[in-house]
Design brief:
481 residues, Aldehyde Dehydrogenase, Chain A, domain 1, single chain, seven-stranded mixed beta sheet, alpha/beta, 2 domains, Aldehyde Dehydrogenase, Chain A, domain 2, six-stranded mixed beta sheet
């Protein structure tokens, strides 16, 4: 058996070795080592930050066509290699192969979208209130940005941070989640050949305690965009604000999916299954709270239990599988812990919740659905981040809306109804950044804003044209005649 291939950091236009490497293990098959990936120390992170700082003056004033061409080249290669990269993603994160290929395609389209945004930069030219004076309002690059991404979308989330950062003239120090470095390294390798000057893009892999902390605390980093846990995000905000660095956070969710009496039952069940359990429930937009009004409640519980019997759990690369493994042993233990908590709190297990045996050793869990739960249970209030959901029965729409908003989070919220009145009211009064009507709460487009309210998000929105709010600063110039 050959030793796993080693993958190095990309710093200042060079592939740089490390003193330590970490194995990347397939959660569908614990005997499958995808590769060994470099672990940076604080000194290597500082070298990457210095390289980005040195490259910034030239890159931030470079021609927009060159930026556009480089980003488009990245997008084209990602799309051309979507099956290969999708297979890598499925191996290291555990998404089913069709989902993984879909995520890769999304990443490619994100780069192509921002290749176009390079050519659509705009500002304002206004008359002053003073005669003979005019005003220009323009946007300039923020500077060196640290990008810290999670494990659940190992190529899409890096893409939606890296592409706008580069499009608007910033230089990047990118730290992927230590659990899934494979897609990040593959993306960096593509970027390394796309025509970006040395130092404009840098990849440093390793633990958050070392790499993330070095990025967040560096006075040479002008902004940090982070997606991950609430606790880490809040600490990043404190550190960045204390030194007046710009910060953007996408954190947790406890997303409600409301099912009203007038909903189409079959449609409601399908969107609830997709919201709660697809991608193994490992999405910040997943709906783990199914809030169901009294008139349809019993039928919905019965139909959900029946539908869940047909869900197939298995190896992410196996054809016909609906849900792959949980991403890691630690995450599996957390999921099982919450299943025990729900039982102990008095919720009734309707379906799933047990380990699944497959041909390979992996972290396979049958998705768990609870009924007879209440709003004060931990299962109703805390983010599990796994294939675990609970049903909460309420009297009517007004109670459902109140229950949906009764959370410290506010990322995504859904409603299943055939009533235009209730759909419009929910859109207006839901305390979430994104609202879905007769659609799963998970599943968003790349060309429109992404983000939430309350404890879910902090700072400006990601994706689409709204990305410029974080990656640029506004300058107002006055011109006299």
């Amino acid at each position: 058996m050959t030793d796993p291939k080693r993958h190095n950091h990309y710093i200042g236009g060079e592939w740089v070795a490390a003193t330590a490497y970490s194995a990347n293990i397939n959660p569908s098959d614990l005997n499958d080592v995808i590769g060994e990936y470099a672990q940076a120390d604080a000194a290597q992170v500082q070298t990457a930050i210095d390289a980005a700082r040195a490259a910034f003056p030239a890159w931030s004033t470079s021609g927009i066509q060159a930026r556009s061409d480089a980003l488009d080249k990245v997008g084209s290669e990602i799309l051309a290699r979507k099956e290969e990269l999708g297979t890598l993603l499925a191996r290291e994160e555990g998404k089913t192969l069709p989902e993984a290929i879909g995520e890769v395609s999304r990443a490619g389209n994100i780069f192509k979208f921002f290749a176009g945004e390079c050519l659509r930069l705009s500002g304002d030219y206004l008359p002053s209130v003073r005669p003979g004076v005019h005003v220009e309002v323009t946007r300039e690059a923020l500077g060196v940005v640290g990008l810290i991404t999670p494990w659940n979308f190992p190529i899409a989330i890096p893409a939606w941070k890296i592409a706008p950062a580069l499009a608007y003239g910033n230089c990047v120090v990118f730290k992927p989640a230590d659990l899934v470095p494979g897609c990040a390294w593959a993306l960096a390798e593509i970027i390394s050949r796309a025509g970006f000057p040395a130092g404009v893009f840098n990849l440093v892999m390793g633990s958050g305690r070392v790499v993330g902390d070095a990025i967040v605390h560096s006075p040479k980093v002008d902004g940090v965009s982070f997606t991950g846990s609430v606790g880490v995000g809040r600490q990043i905000a404190i550190n960045c604000v204390s030194r007046q660095a710009k910060v953007q956070l996408e954190m947790g969710g406890k997303n409600p999916q409301v099912i009203l009496d007038d909903a189409d039952l079959k449609q409601a069940v399908e969107l609830a299954v997709q919201s709660a359990f697809y991608s193994t429930g490992q999405r910040c937009t997943a709906s783990s709270r199914l809030i169901v009004t009294a008139g349809i409640h019993d039928k919905f519980v019965e139909a959900m239990a029946e539908r869940m019997r047909s869900i197939k759990v298995g190896h992410a690369l196996q054809a016909g599988i609906d849900i792959g493994p949980v991403v890691s042993r630690a995450q599996l233990d957390q999921d099982l812990g919450y299943i025990d908590i729900a039982r102990n709190e008095g919720a009734r297990l309707v379906a799933g919740g047990s380990l699944v045996t497959c041909d390979t050793e992996g972290y396979f869990l049958a998705p768990a659905l609870f009924a007879d739960s209440t709003a004060d249970m931990r299962i109703s209030r805390e983010e599990v981040f796994g294939p675990v959901a609970n049903i909460i029965k309420v009297a009517d729409y007004e109670a459902a809306l109140a229950m949906a908003n009764d959370t410290e989070f506010g990322l995504s919220a859904g409603i299943a109804t055939t009533s235009l009145k209730y759909a419009n009211h929910f859109k207006r009064h839901s305390q979430a950044g994104m609202v879905m009507v007769n659609l799963p709460t998970a599943g968003v487009d790349y060309h429109v804003p992404f983000g939430g309210r309350k404890g879910s998000s902090y700072g400006s929105r990601e994706q689409g044209r709204y990305a410029q709010e974080f990656y640029t600063v506004v300058k107002t110039s006055y011109i006299g005649s």
